[in-house]
Amino acid sequence: MSEDIILETRGLTKEFKGFVAVDHVDLKVRRGTIHALIGPNGAGKTTVFNLLTKFLPVTSGHIVYKGQDITQQAAAQVARSGMVRSFQISAVFPHLTVLENVRVGLQRKLGTSMHFWKPESTLYQLNDEAMALLEAVDLAEFAHTQTVELPYGRKRALEIATTLAIDPELMLLDEPTQGMGHEDVGRVVELIRKVAANRTVLMVEHNMNVVSNLCDTITVLARGSVLAEGPYATVSQDPKVLEAYVGSTEEQAA
């Protein structure tokens, strides 16, 4: 595998009792890029994410990460190797403060992530690093706010911060702007652009304004198969994409 490809799938397939949800998907994600996986509802996007992060077993095909076949690896092993899915693995604790949530993500570096009986003072050494992460996602002023009190868009920013605490090489973002107002969408887009400066991002996203402004490469899925791939300017003009994706949008609006 070329050194600039951090993640590749070869013939990735998932069947559910005869129904093919993901059908021989070949995907290549280049290092240092933001790559979007888009398509109409039911296209198989979330299933692909579930296969990549081992929430589901693969029916056939292979997943290769950093040159290693990880098809049979467990979810925890994949996360430890640097591929982390935000908004799933990094769920926040609503009744901890914002700072405490990020500190939990950093505990792994101390080797005490399961030592819940240790006094809180043992975690104070992580405060500076946690605050640096909060500053990176524009949440420093909320450090001592209970997470349940955060606005929705800020919670999404916190989820990204807790994912960054694990120091991933490849971040998988599952619908990062879903349910947000315009102001929150703009904030999260800038945050993704910022954190992508030193890592690779693969994201599922419905908002085409986000995809067009943020992503280097777009892979379009339809009925579990790859329909088109390339930069947004090319993909958005593909007649097959317009029929499958825009047509689906019109049907949903009807």
Written description of the protein model:
By secondary structure, the protein is an alpha/beta fold. The chain has two domains: 176 residues, Rossmann fold (3-Layer(aba) Sandwich), CATH 3.40.50.300; 75 residues, no CATH class. The protein is built from nine helices and ten strands. A six-stranded mixed sheet has the order 6-7-8-3-9-10, sandwiched between helices. Strands 2-1-4-5 form a four-stranded antiparallel sheet, with helices on one face. A hairpin with a 2-residue loop joins strand 9 and strand 10. Helix 3 packs across helix 4 and helix 5 runs parallel beside helix 6.
User: What's the rounded overall pLDDT mean?
Assistant: 86
What would you say the CATH architecture of the largest domain is?
3-Layer(aba) Sandwich
Overall shape: it is globular
Which residues sit in consecutive blocks of at least 5 with pLDDT less than 50? 248-254
The largest beta-sheet arranges its strands as 6-7-8-3-9-10
Q: Encode the helix/strand succession as letters.
A: EEEHEEHEHHHEHEHEEHH
Kindly estimate the percentage of residues that lie in beta strands according to DSSP. 15-25%
Radius of gyration: 19 Å
User: What is the CATH homologous superfamily assignment of the largest domain?
Assistant: P-loop containing nucleotide triphosphate hydrolases
Number of strands: 10
Helix content: 25-40%
User: CA-to-CA gap between the ends?
Assistant: 45 Å
What is the total number of structural domains? 2
Structural class: alpha/beta
Query: Sheet with the most strands?
Result: 6 strands, mixed
CATH structural fold name of the largest domain: Rossmann fold
